[in-house]
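It is worth pausing here to work through a concrete case rather than discussing structure prediction in the abstract. The textbook approach is simple: state the sequence, then state the predicted structure, then interpret. We follow exactly that order.
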Amino acid sequence: MTDNRTGGTAENALTTYTADSTQTPHTSHTPHAQHAVQQQAVDHNAIGLDADRALAPHRMMPPPTEIADLTHRLVGHGAGLVSLVEAIPETEHTVRTKGALKDWYDLTDSGPGTGAMANWVHMRALARMCRTFMDYLREREREGRYRP
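Step two, the predicted structure:
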């Protein structure tokens, strides 16, 4: 059995995409990115599945290429969720949602740190924020204050 986690984990998962080998940095909160995201429908099932995969236990850590791919998808999912959350007045945000928004911008601005586990930890943090945003939007929907 090969341990696919060794080697390649120092690559920046935000700029290395496996689908087309594009080396373009993704900043989710630029006006262009926000406009593009607002035109896309948010797929809660896909977000949930990607978050579940990203948050799998350590023994099920995906290989570096899958970490890069999941990170790329989570950044896209998160950008869509952030645009929905930010459309709601800040006075109605929960403390947890406010913290997740701050963390979102911190992590998408800085990218993963350095070290063997940095990309994996970064991907997991993005997944937790996506879950927080989805939970917040679902709660608002249950209360009748949000319609996707």
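Step three, interpretation. The chain has a mean pLDDT of 77. The two ends are 44 Å apart (CA to CA).
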